[in-house]
Amino acid sequence: SSGLGVWFGQFFHNLGGGADSFSWYWTPMDVWVPEANTFLTLYHNPLHLLALALIVLTMLLWLKSAEQNSWRHSLLAGATAFTLILIHPYHIPTILLMPLVWILAWRFTKANVKLWPLIKRYLVLAGLLTPAIVYHIYLLVFDFSRKENWAQSFGFTPHPVVALASYGLPLVLAILGWRIMKAKQTISPKFLFCLVWFFVGFFLLYAWFLNWPRRLSQGLQVPLVVLATVGLDYLWRKWERYLPASRLASVFIIILIAL
């Protein structure tokens, strides 16, 4: 998906009436938002790269703690999230909201899931985040320069259609993967985790109570690529007899869409 939005930029600008004053609102994110995809994250800023790594690590550790009922993984997830929020506080809504929505979604889809152990794991995560959150609140109240910097951290998101189009091929394959898993009725906790991650993340891109929602596009491509591999695997299995060396080609395409 990286950079492919440049081919559709003019179409979206025409859709928006060609208004130059709001050109960012009609420009696909994969050509200018460093948080939007992995390629721009790698290319733009080491801080974004570290934040992306910590987001992915936090999500993996917390999912591991929930699946295995592991306190060790809960503590590690909380410590990783604490480090993330300490250096990149914009992701507080993502880290707090995403696991909670996943717990509720898993409980809704699986009636036999025990809710209280999952809530306890979540409370560990939220509890370890609290010192970092309190630290940033302290700075906002008592540090004038930090307060002004925070007030100027605007980051609004382009039109929803443009934002979705920014993810290009991974989004199409992810939708295909979701339909396949839904038809088979084999939506595992991990697959549900990726679905919730994307939908919660996309909701936060347009959260009216935030000044920086566009920054929360960071990491959103990760669950998309995971879901896209299911759709890609289906296509290669379907077309394998027509495409020699399809497995090698599929690995190459996964690498491309992951960027």
Describe the protein in words.
This protein is an all-alpha fold and 259 residues long. It contains twelve helices and no strands. α5 crosses α10 (189-204) and α10 crosses α11 (221-239). The longest helix has 28 residues, at 115-142. It is globular and about 65 Å long.
- Helices, by number, come to 12
Fraction of residues in helix: 55-70%
Approximately how much beta-strand content do the residues carry?
under 5%
- What gap, in angstroms, lies between the N and C termini? 7 Å
Largest sheet: none
The total beta strand count reads 0
- Shape estimate: globular
Q: Show unreliable segments.
A: none
Q: Quickly give the structural class.
A: mainly alpha
Mean pLDDT: 85
SSE blueprint and pairings:
Elements: H1 9-15, H2 38-44, H3 46-68, H4 71-87, H5 92-109, H6 115-142, H7 144-151, H8 160-165, H9 168-184, H10 189-204, H11 221-239, H12 246-258
Helix pairs in contact: 2-3, 3-4, 4-6, 5-6, 5-10, 6-7, 9-11, 10-11, 11-12
